[in-house]
Amino acid sequence: MSTDLSDPVFGPDARGHFGPYGGRFVAETLMGPLDELEQAFRSSWADPAFRAQFDRDLAHYVGRPSPLYLAERLSRELGGAQIYFKREDLNHTGAHKVNNTIGQALLAAQMGKTRIIAETGAGQHGVASATVAARLGLECVVYMGAEDIARQAPNVYRMKLLGAEVVPVTSGTRTLKDALNEALRDWVTNVDNTFYIIGTVAGPAPYPEMVREFQTVIGREARAQCLEMTGRLPDALIACVGGGSNAIGLFHPFIADKDVRMIGVEAAGDGLNTKRHAASLCAGRPGVLHGNRTYLLQDDNGQVSGTHSVSAGLDYPGVGPEHAWLKDCHRAEYVGIDDKEALAAFHRVTRTEGIIPALESSHALAQAIKMAPDMSPDQILLVNLSGRGDKDVNTIADLENIQL
Amino acid sequence: MNRIDACFERLKAEGRAALVPYLTAGDPDADTTLELLHQMVEAGADIVELGVPFSDPMADGPTIQLACERALDAGMSLRGTLDIARRFRMTNSDTPLVLMGYLNPVEAMGSAAFVAAAKEAGVDGVLSVDLAVEEADTLVPELEAADIAPIFLVAPTTSDARIRKMGEVGRGYLYYVSLKGVTGSAQLDVDSVSSRITAIRSLTGLPIAVGFGIRTPEHAAAIAAVADAVVVGSALVEIVAEHAEDRARMCQLVRERAAALADATHGAARA
Predict the structure, then answer these.
(1) Residues B14, B267: contact at Cβ < 8 Å?
(2) pTM here?
(3) How much is the average pLDDT of A361-374?
(4) In the predicted model, what is the mean pLDDT of chain B?
(5) Considering only alpha carbons, which residue of chain B is nearest residue A34?
(6) Which of A38, A76, A200, A271 has the largest CB neighbor count within 10 A?
(7) What per-residue confidence (pLDDT) applies to A129?
(8) Which residues contact B146 (CB under 8 A, 6 or more apart)?
């Protein structure tokens, strides 16, 4: 693929590269199965019957389209741009993650796989995977960092209720990146009957492209809804970025709309000037992890760093390779929001709009709250409210020393 | 001639297979690793593989994961690993030394700087677990130019077309992963390995090493009967882990295990 930044190709190319990023860097045992997966995805995604089934499930099981909602009171208080929320929090299971797991589970069933594995950070992807596995009668094993299990107890219990086995991962930093390692180890061992549902737009090709395709329903709907409601496109899109699936899902259908800014919000944790954050695009440099080349938080010796964010779903040292490319091409901008700003946005949106947002989404909301006052009331900010905050109430209560 | 090629040429003339023990560099510290390398060579190892510790060893089982964690906690790095190689070469100029690890530390150092340092340290081969042959077009020519062998893994799931490509791009030997799984798994199936090796030999002229899941002298003998080299890692790393408090005992046990594996490998009747 051309890596000419003045005329970028928004791929991927035939080998899964987005500019210099992406690709397929895995243990040899997985190279063949990834080829099979890619072929199955390409033929299914081109098959009208598969697409019709996917659309039906999104409509009747997930509850799509999700609304585009004008946050009137919040916009009025801030006195600038009109802020619209894309309400992915209203999806079945409470976040955008299910769009992708519906697609991958259909693919798994079509490929004759009987067992699903997944990694999860905040637990939203684990719940979404356990949900589709229950529906299709597939065995489901979810790998989750021991650290994350402790801070996302409600989601852990939900997965168990849905019949999934939740395996605590105690290696490394005991968070999302280690859960991914463990899921890859499981897959390499059980590759004959197992389908690995990766929860974000990272991992080896074809995952970044495949997950993007399943998530672009967010951006396609939002674009049409915005045109219908306001007669114009938004001035800027804002979405939080951990691995980056909700952001790519929103951004991708707008890539050709050159006047629409795209702003990805990373978790700045205790601050970008500290070592305790998870902002790989803002503060990392390119490297290879989990099957793809992308921006990574790492030390001078190429060891991947531990990360910190108040939100488990953003607590990841890498990022999807397409984001790395969008950054280098200057098609998207990436900024950091720290824990305090995210928590303030969480409370503000809860109190002014009656919507309890996920801590992940609260990072995107904080960025909107920062930008809106400097904009005019005829401008539009479209924020992806990627998930609801019910799963986070224990974390919030702990931070405020409240016993539930 | 690269030391690996010379080694296989000599072994071929002698009609025997090579024993290739693996240790994670810096587990528990650089001096001990260096001592263990020399001990294993004295016990009969033909080639040594030195693992470069990485924070996210996704193809490794628990034994080598923990070895990586211990080594990193003790401050080991790619540069430190190269330093162990350099010190090994100060007193051993014959035994081939292969680095095995993951791509990111190499990329962080910069591939040109890495290859130059590896050459200077006396490294003979480099195996990056997560570097598929399709993605190797930068590193391979640089290694070639320095006469360092790029070594590729072949899995039970690898297609014939890709094995042919690895045979063309790779040097030294191909490393056949004996099972679907991570390092240290305990489910070696000698018959299936044997038939697979016959198939691989029809696609490439490179020597074939077999690893993942070989633990005992019995395994080693069975594999040595069909392959050109037998790689043993986790079974040795376990000894290092169990005897971290008693270096003398650790060295003695590693040496004894390496000697038993070498005897079994070298004594195997070969087709």
Answers:
(1) no
(2) 0.96
(3) 98
(4) 96
(5) B157
(6) A200
(7) 98
(8) B115, B116, B118, B119
* Contact flag A290-B58 (C-beta cutoff 8 Å): yes
Give me the pLDDT at residue B143, please: 98
Give the confidence band of A320 by pLDDT, cuts at 50, 70, 90. very high
Cβ separation A287–B104 shorter than 8 A: yes
* Token duo for residue B236: 């040795």
Q: What is the pLDDT of residues B88-104, one digit of tens each?
A: 999 999 999 999 999 99
Answer yes or no: are the C-beta atoms of A31 and B157 closer than 8 Å: yes
**What is the reported pLDDT for A152?**
85
Helical (H) or strand (E) element with A238: strand A236-240
Q: What single-letter DSSP state applies at residue A388? A: B
Q: Taking all residues of chain A, what is their mean pLDDT, rounded to a whole number?
A: 96
Ordered strands of the A17-18 beta sheet: A17-18, A21-25, A291-296, A285-289
Interface A:B, Cβ pairs < 8 A: 119
**Chain A contact present for B61, CB below 8 A:** yes
Radius of gyration, alpha carbons of chain A: 19
Say whether pLDDT at B56 is over 70. yes
Interface probe, candidates B66, B78, B102, B130, chain A, greatest A C-beta count within 10 A: B130
Nearest CA distance, A32 vs chain B (angstrom) = 6
Closest chain A residue to B57 measured between Cα atoms?
A181
Higher-confidence residue of B125 and A171: namely: B125
Q: Measured between CB atoms, does B52 come within 8 Å of chain A? A: no
Spatial CA neighbour of B82 closest among B103, B105, B99, B64: B99
Helix ranges restricted to H, A197-238 = 207-215, 217-230
Count the Cβ atoms, other than its own, within 10 Å of residue A231.
7
In this prediction, the answer to ipTM > 0.85 reads: yes
- Contact (Cβ atoms closer than 8 angstroms) between residue A225 and residue A192: no
Write out pLDDT tens, residues A19-58.
Answer: 999 999 999 999 999 999 999 999 999 999 999 999 999 9
**CA A129 – CA A118 distance, rounded (Å):** 7
**DSSP for A293-343, written as a single string:** EEEE-B-TTSPBPP---SSGGG--S---HHHHHHHHTTSSEEEEEEHHHHH
Q: Is A129 a catalytic residue?
A: no
Give the residue among A337, A311, A316 at the shortest CA–CA distance from A392: A311
Measured distance between the N- and C-terminal CA atoms of chain B, rounded to whole angstroms: 27
Q: Based on the residue annotation, tell me whether A119 is a catalytic residue of this protein.
A: yes
Q: How far is A391 from chain B (nearest CA, A)?
A: 28
Gap between the Cα atoms of A124 and A96, Å rounded: 9
Are A257 and A233 in contact by the 8 Å Cβ rule? The answer is yes
Counting residues of chain A whose pLDDT is more than 70, the rounded percentage is 98
Cα dihedral sign, A142-A145-A146-A151: negative
